[in-house]
Amino acid sequence: LPISAAANLRPGAEQKVVFITARVHPGETPSSFVCQGIIDFLVSHHPIAKVLRDHLVFKIAPMLNPDGVYLGNYRCSLMGFDLNRHWANPSPWAHPTLHGVKELIIDMYNNPKINLEFYIDIHAHSTMMNGFMYGNIFEDEERFQRQAVFPKLLCQNAEDFSYSSTSFNRDAVKAGTGRRFLGGLLNDTSYCYTLEVSFYSYILGGAASAVPYTEEAYMKLGRNVARTFLDYYRLNSLVEGPLAPTPKTR
């Protein structure tokens, strides 16, 4: 888009940023398909995508562990680190991708013209069904309740997303994850989530059997994640023309 066409990119404009990362665990290949669905939708000609581009800035790091992916590792990097346990103090030598992304996030956080409003880290889950989210627990009850809004909206848009499986925790084992660390670093206008999706199947409401996930179904979940920002920011009235429904995936 030309800079003049996007209100969020005009000189001096305040930027609302959504930061998305994926594939920090190399073996969790579904996360890449979900992330691809988000990217494909955001750069498409869909009228919702145009509105989102005009009002939000999306920063996407689609593969946080490229060396682990290249080597075929399941969880670790080339040097044997689970990168999703090193967000607190990543080394530029041992954890370069994490270090770079963290520095970028901190720079944006310290920029008064940027509101870093969402951080979503995409993973795949080996035992649970459907898509679901992990969020953080806060002492501030209002902040805790506001954090539940996005996954509730996503549940309305994505038939394979389960709000009942979504949970909020402060498990000590997860303290070094992106969701936990950034949830403690950023202010109360920022929301940090881990988006999980099953390796295997999803169960639709009222159905007796599970539906196997396909690459297209994962990408559809990604498209629905992107679409949900339209509802969250109440931008629906700005969409021009009739909206084509997202194709059903079986």
UniProtKB/TrEMBL annotation:
Domain Peptidase M14, chain residue ranges per copy: 1-233
Keyword Hydrolase: yes
GO biological process, one term: proteolysis
Keywords: Carboxypeptidase, Hydrolase, Protease
Origin: domain of life: Eukaryota
Active site per the UniProt annotation: E196
Protease found in the keyword field: yes
Requisite cofactors: Zn(2+)
GO molecular function, one term: metallocarboxypeptidase activity
Family: Belongs to the peptidase M14 family.
PANTHER family per the UniProt record, alphabetical: CYTOSOLIC CARBOXYPEPTIDASE (PTHR12756), CYTOSOLIC CARBOXYPEPTIDASE 6 (PTHR12756:SF9)
Protein name listed in UniProt: CBPC6 carboxypeptidase
Organism: Bombycilla garrulus
Gene assigned in the entry: Agbl4_0
